[in-house]
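Human: Here is a favour to ask of a fellow structure person. Comparing notes only helps if you start from a blank page. I am asking you to supply a protein in sequence and structure-token form. Write it directly below this note and I will take it from there.

Assistant:
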Amino acid sequence: MSTQTPIPFEMVEDLARDFYATYCASSGGLNYQRLPCPTWPELPEATRRHWRTVARRAITLRVSRESNAETRRMPPDETVLCEHGDIDAAGQVWLRYRFDLDPPVAA
């Protein structure tokens, strides 16, 4: 369990919007389907939630970098994934994509 203080929503939202705008700028304003990127308010709430999660991760990595470089190799905690239900499952997905691991085999 994290002992970190929750990150103010306004800070997270502002950084998430900046990250999304940077993505749009780097892609020429087109999404992965080569369609125009919607504006931030036009994005579905679930998509904005994902961008906020990225922003929280960036904030926590910035703070942790000052104290412990190994934190970047650890899955995001509930401070980052607070808008998502199953934090443990999300952490497993993070590990798979962060380290290019094979997906789990269905039982």
